[in-house]
Amino acid sequence: MIAFLGTGLLGSGFVRALRGRGEAVNVWNRTAEKAKALEAHGAKAFEDPAEAVRGAARVHLALSDDAAVDEVLERARPGLGKDAVLVDHTTTSPKGAAARAARWRYQHAPVFMSPANALESKGVMMCSGDKALFDALSPELSKMTGKLVHLGPSPERAAGLKLLGNLFLMFMTDGLAEALNLAKALDIPREDAARLFDFFNPGPTIPSRLKRMLSGDYSRPSWELGMARKDARLMMEAAPALPVLPSIARELDRWIERGHAKEDWTVIAKDAI
Questions:
Q1: Residue 11 has pLDDT above 90, yes or no
Q2: pTM beyond 0.90, yes or no
Q3: C-alpha span between 246 and 36 (Å, rounded)
Q4: What residues are paired with 140 via a beta bridge?
Q5: 109: closest CA among 80, 143, 75, 72?
Q6: Is the pLDDT of residue 111 over 90?
């Protein structure tokens, strides 16, 4: 039997997928109605996390943050069997994940998944820490995701890379919002703005851009820093209310003042290398 603590959008998708594969699943959620709703899919809901985990070989968690994970684990402790394994999908701090790995039989397994991905067992699940524990869990975890990766022995590594990925997603989403704001200022219909990405896909440029950043060689520019700054000026002149671009422009200015105007604009990553 499997227990699942935390049945919000992600957790409920996982539970429904587990039930679809015929797994017996106990569920608990702080808002009891969300757990109770999963009884329609064959799960068994509990009001006490200790009762939900009693007899479970594997306990999954999908909660809000470190404090919630630590609190719920303490509440569940009286019902945990000595051989139970904790699989935590919560996005947490690296420090918190490492501390839990030292206290519990614990596998941190954050994901890049939407609720629909969890239901369809697609997306990416990242693990790090004890390789023997991961190897024992991987036959079951691989059923829950499209790609399961182990990132090495440091128990905090998956948490750190999850934050890196989420940071990129935040910037990407904000970039789309900025593009729509600029389109509005330029009287470009939003549907036409969206169609730009039907034929312009910047995604494939990411590996080459990272390779240039990591090389530390910015001397053969594909886009000069000074020209990127000029384009930022044109954008801000067209749409003075853009919220984020002025901060990027200030960073470009900082590197221009340091004498890098004729180098590739990826030089802005130099201090991070």
A1: yes
A2: yes
A3: 48
A4: none
A5: 143
A6: yes
* Residue spans per domain, the chain: 2-160, 201-272
CATH architecture of 2-160: 3-Layer(aba) Sandwich (3.40)
pLDDT tens for each residue of 139-155: 999 999 999 999 999 99
What's the CA gap between 80 and 57, in Å, rounded?
Answer: 9
Which residues lie across from 3 on neighbouring strands? 26, 59
State mean pLDDT over 91-101.
98
Read off φ and ψ for residue 244, nearest 5 degrees.
-105, -35
Helix (H, G, I), strand (E, B) or coil at 69: helix
pLDDT at 273 over 90: no
Please, where are the H alpha helices in the chain? 9-20, 32-36, 49-53, 66-76, 94-103, 115-120, 131-141, 157-185, 190-199, 205-215, 225-238, 245-257
Half-sphere exposure of 213 (CA within 13 A, CB side): 14
Burial class (CB in 10 A: 0-12, 13-18, 19+), 215: exposed
Pick the CATH number of 201-272 from 3.30.590.20, 1.10.1040.10, 3.30.56.10, 2.160.20.10: 1.10.1040.10
